[in-house]
Design brief:
Length: 521
């Protein structure tokens, strides 16, 4: 020990803390290389998670001063108010893991009975009698016919509400749906057949996954079914026509020996949980019959006159998903320069893709485009027709810069945008007809469309920022929407200004006229 340390206990203490001490009994994560026992299938699923909702290059500043690595999906204020749990098929059972996008760690939580999970997915309740026949083996079904994994996107409302108040609850739906959609797209790219389920018993899932009394709302499930045949156990098969591209920023770290379990809610999180009870599907379930099918993200447009055809009708803007997903990012601002109509058309084509869901008869948002500065397109409002990939002119002049910025809660990010996308629906009518479940489904599809648009924009080098901070009435006025239509989500597109500053990541919700020190309410 040196003289300085003897005379400076703080230095000595610090030096002591820097020493590594090995412990034979300590649990080590399996970094990079999977355990010998880890199946190729789990590895492929983890890779899809890392690409769909994982870290990417770059950093964002959140909560005022914390620097965090950027992720492949956007989130209001970069708060990511949700968790991802994954049940991996493990022979005749499922193994439940907590997936943390920060650091790409997968930590084992518990074993899940496959019959319970199968019942939940089937929407049936198994008799309490433990000797009752296994419904899967009884009718000849084999474990291989069950999904290879079930990914649950589980909201923690308080994590958004502490900044955005009650509106933050809606952001949990939007943020989670961005991630769920992207995970489904990544899984499809890796050769799985993904299906999104929104009509499931949230309370039953909470019981099964150990989420009860933790103030968490399971909002979406993505089942990943492996392709049939020997490829599921052999080397990882390629996605359609190419090898799956790994995310170099998301190398899975497996923790198979359990750990702390999920974080417990504190007082404010419990209060926020009670506050969402009138609006959440967890608290107010509505048992709607499942309708399996593939739905587009956007509802068809009503007939219109003098349609304008857009470029990119036959192209698949997400064909190179693996490359595009790592390039997605939010523009911090826009230059007052015109956007190329061809690039806009190709980016918009991304919303035309369908997704397999259990609510194929559910509500979809319409897409109203407010063109302000696009080369080759007169300014004004247009309804987007996804079937024909056309714009149907509605009228107006696109609004003044002042009016557009004011409609976006005076957020400077909207100034200079070439166009605003307003996703809209007759929300009040929907609430009456389908209740909280309808609201959840509508927000899922709106965010799903926005996520596809983000990817389409990334592929075309079009600047894009999703906006949760907007005045729905003002946007509806600018976009000439009918009275019953409400704007539920806005996306600004244009030529990105790399030098702008992004204020919505600050701790104060300026765009919501809120001070976060206020309690929600
Ligand atoms: C639901 C939602 C609402 C958002 N609202 C705003 C907004 O009002 N203003 C803004 O500048 N950015 C907004 N964003 C973008 C986020 O700030 C951005 O996604 C986050 O900072 C992470 O950065 P990245 O998208 O570049 O990865 C929103 C994103 C989402 C998903």
């Amino acid at each position: 020990m040196g003289v300085e340390e003897l005379t400076n206990p703080l230095l000595a203490g610090f030096w002591n803390e820097t020493r590594l001490r090995s412990n034979l009994e300590a649990v080590s994560p399996a970094v990079g290389q999977p355990d010998p026992g880890l199946s190729a299938q789990w590895t492929r699923i983890a890779a899809a998670l890392g690409l769909g909702y994982g870290e990417r290059s770059g950093a964002v500043i959140t909560k005022g001063k914390t620097l965090m690595r950027a992720r492949t999906t956007p989130s209001a204020g970069a708060l990511y108010p949700f968790e991802v749990l994954v049940a991996f098929q493990d022979g005749h059972a499922y193994a439940l893991y907590h997936y943390d996008a920060a650091g790409c760690s997968l930590r084992r939580l518990a074993a899940v009975d496959r019959r319970d999970l199968a019942d939940l997915l089937a929407g049936s309740v198994r008799p309490a009698d433990p000797l009752a026949a296994d419904p899967l083996t009884a009718d000849g079904a084999h474990p291989a016919e069950l999904p290879a994994a079930v990914v649950a996107v589980v909201a923690r409302p308080w994590h958004a509400m502490r900044k955005y108040g009650r509106r933050g609850y809606l952001y949990t739906h939007l943020d989670g749906a961005h991630a769920a959609t992207n995970i489904a797209l990544a899984a499809a790219d890796a050769g799985f057949a993904p299906a999104v389920r929104l009509r499931f018993d949230r309370r039953a899932l909470s019981r099964l996954f150990g989420l009860e009394n933790l103030c968490r709302e399971p909002q979406a499930l993505v089942t990943l079914t492996a392709p049939a045949g020997p490829a599921t156990t052999g080397p990882a098969p390629a996605g359609p026509g190419r090898a799956p591209r790994p995310n170099p920023f998301a190398v899975p770290i497996w923790w198979h020996d359990g750990g702390r379990g999920l974080e417990q809610p504190d007082g404010p999180e419990r209060e926020a949980w009670d506050l969402v009870s009138p609006v959440s599907t967890y608290h107010q379930p509505r048992d709607l019959a499942r309708r399996f099918g593939t739905t587009p993200a956007i509802r068809p447009a009503a007939a219109g006159t003098a349609p304008l055809a857009l470029t990119g009708r036959d192209a698949d803007p997400l064909a190179d998903f693996g490359a595009v997903v790592l390039d997605r990012q939010s523009a911090k601002g826009f230059l007052a320069k015109p956007l190329d109509a061809d690039a806009l058309g190709r980016a918009l084509a991304a919303v035309r893709g369908g997704i397999a869901v259990d609510c194929a008869d559910g509500p979809l948002a319409g897409l109203r485009l407010l063109v302000r500065n696009v080369d080759g397109l007169p300014a004004g409002a247009y309804e987007y027709d996804p079937d024909g990939h056309r714009l149907l002119p509605v009228g107006g002049d696109g609004g003044s810069e002042e009016a557009v910025v004011a409609a976006c809660m005076n957020q400077g990010v909207a100034a200079g945008c070439a166009a605003l996308v307003a996703l809209h629906a007759p929300v009040r009518q929907l609430l009456g007809e389908r209740g909280q479940q309808g609201l959840a489904e509508l927000h899922f599809h709106a965010a799903s469309a926005a996520q596809r648009l983000c990817l389409g924009a990334a592929a075309q080098h079009v600047g894009i920022t999703c906006l949760g901070g907007f005045d729905a009435g003002r946007i509806a006025e600018l976009a000439l929407l009918d009275d019953q239509e409400e704007v539920i989500y806005v996306v600004a597109v244009g030529v990105a200004d790399e030098n702008a500053v992004k204020w919505d990541r600050a701790p104060v919700a300026y765009s919501h006229a809120r001070d976060p020190r206020q309690q929600p309410g």
